[in-house]
Amino acid sequence: MIWEVAVDASDLKMFEAVARLGSMKRAAAELNTVQSNVTARIKALENDLGISLFQRHARGVTITGPGQRMLPFAGQITKLLADARAAAKDDGTPNGPLKIGSLETTTAMRLAPLLSNFTLAYPEVQLVVTTGTTAQLVTELLEYRLDGAFVAGPVEHPDLDRQVVFIEELVLVTSPSVTDPSSLTKCGTLRTIVFQYGCSYRQKLEAVLSGMGIANARPLELGSLDAMIACVSAGVGVTLLPRRVVAHAASEGNVSAHALPQIHANVETLFIRRKDTYVSSAMRAFLELCDTQT
Predict the structure, then answer these.
(1) Of 37, 177, 188, 193, which residue is the least packed, with the fewest Cβ within 10 Å?
(2) Could you give the angle at which helices 9-21 and 35-49 cross, rounded to 10 degrees?
């Protein structure tokens, strides 16, 4: 007997959204449809497959074991169909959607001229840029939700191509009253001002402080560079950022930027993308522009 199941690409897109968001309601909002439509389509997909993809509960849904096994293929198939459509329409002129992820720091200090040049040169490309931590961006890329991303190196994964775009000098950022970083060891409880877990700079800061003999620092997570710099300036805690990011605040005397030992000082900013996806004319043009930044 041949097992045949009619699975529509839009069903897989709904399935992926529900699995990622953990809610039919939130998936419906993201996909710009009504919750009843998502619920009905997921139920029909489960009936066709003869398995339960989600466990329903008061807080939303939780993906089941069979759903977890199916999830990677949903992303692959959805992306493959999108690539097929893009390839068929690609006449060599950069156009269509291009979703790029980036670190907040890279967006703030590096991407403005690159993105400006790209959008001026290729106005038919619908460029979307989102920010996140390195861990978040790698996950979104592996799950086919991004076409490429700027992340902090090193990143090693067999499914990813990577190229060095920038090299940043990292500095320990403190309040202006801290003239010697070694004095931080005398703090009773030191706070680190950081992005959420998964930020590579956060991990490097922990390594720097550990090397100074500071192991009891407590993290304060913030969502923006401006907020982080303001908290450091006020003496709330310390952080680790590229020198270019804090250059203006340091020149104004709002923070102090302390050089780091060579082992911690330099970090590569990489542009990464999946090896198995179609390289559209838009992506090819973007990669060529990235090459000029190195």
Answers:
(1) 188
(2) 110
